[in-house]
Amino acid sequence: MRVLIVSPAYTSSRRGGAEVVAARTAAGFHALGWEVTILAAGEGKETVREGVLCRLQPWNFCDLESVRLLPVLLRYAWAVWDATGFGARTQLKKILEANKFDLIVVHGLRGLGYGLLPALTKAAKVVYVAHDVQLLEPSGILYPTTADAALGGVSRRVYRWYMRKLSSYVSTAVFPSNFLKDFYSKYGYFTKANCAVVPNPFGEGQKKDVGEAMTVVFDGQLEKQKGIYVLLEAWSQLAKLDATLLIMGEGSALATVRTAAFK
């Protein structure tokens, strides 16, 4: 069984949440004896524990990590070019023709190009794993109380129309929560797909007996959209819990986290 896992920001070392899920999925396939190829943005090819990491160069203004540093107008231009996938189509075609994959699992396409989705679905059965709302909002950041207003502009409507059209190519879509599944359904996405909710896989944890002290870890960006303020507020209401909260990361909420740690 030959499987292709698409994860644009995948590296052999530094990984975010979506990349961790992609790595664990790849490791699971590898353990089954499947031949695993991971497709990411960048240049070069290398062997990793989970399989072979192959990179495509989308030829955009900058890489995915540097987009947030661009002026607003250039960020819009970057997003438009990224949505088309023109920069990586020829490279992708060569990889698909050379490998003949049986299954393709897509963990997002921002950074490679969402316009690659039709070519992927023609090559093999595609399972699209949604980690956030990037098919609705290019930044992937929306707040529930202001989502409708944020998505109301003309440019956002055009973007959603295009992404809804691309989502119709997907036969199977997987979501980590009912909330995200219902959110996409509300805006008319994945209408032709079999949709399923599958919680993100995680490594084997250490079992704790009832009443035994626990350590809860938050490892990620200290930003509002990551839920750090909600976590701090909830934790403040659990004073009687025999547990320690360990927070690791950087971001605009760092000062707030430090203040909360010494209360």
Structural commentary:
By secondary structure, the chain is an alpha/beta fold. 34% of the residues lie in helices and 19% in strands. The protein contains 9 helices and 10 strands. It has helices at 17-31, 72-84, 89-99, 117-123, 147-150, 154-167, 178-186, 228-236, 254-261; strands at residues 2-6, 35-41, 45-48, 51-56, 103-106, 125-129, 172-175, 194-197, 214-219, 243-248. The strands form 2 sheets. An 8-stranded mixed β-sheet has the order 3-4-2-1-5-6-7-8, with helices on both faces. A two-stranded parallel ribbon has the order 9-10. It is globular and about 60 Å long. The mean pLDDT is 86.
Features:
single chain, 263 residues, alpha/beta, eight-stranded mixed sheet, two-stranded parallel ribbon, 9 helices, 10 strands, 34% helix, globular
Please report the distance between the alpha carbons of the first and last residues.
54 Å
Query: What best-fitting shape do the alpha-carbon axes yield?
Result: globular
The whole-angstrom Rg is: 20 Å
The biggest sheet amounts to: 8 strands, mixed
Q: What is the H/E string?
A: EHEEEHHEHEHHEHEEHEH
Which strand-content bin applies to the residues? 15-25%
Classify the secondary structure makeup into a structural class.
alpha/beta
Query: What's the total number of strands?
Result: 10
Number of helices: 9
Helix content class:
25-40%
Enumerate the spans where pLDDT stays under 50 for 5 or more consecutive residues: none
Mean pLDDT: 86
In the sheet with the most strands, the strands line up as 3-4-2-1-5-6-7-8
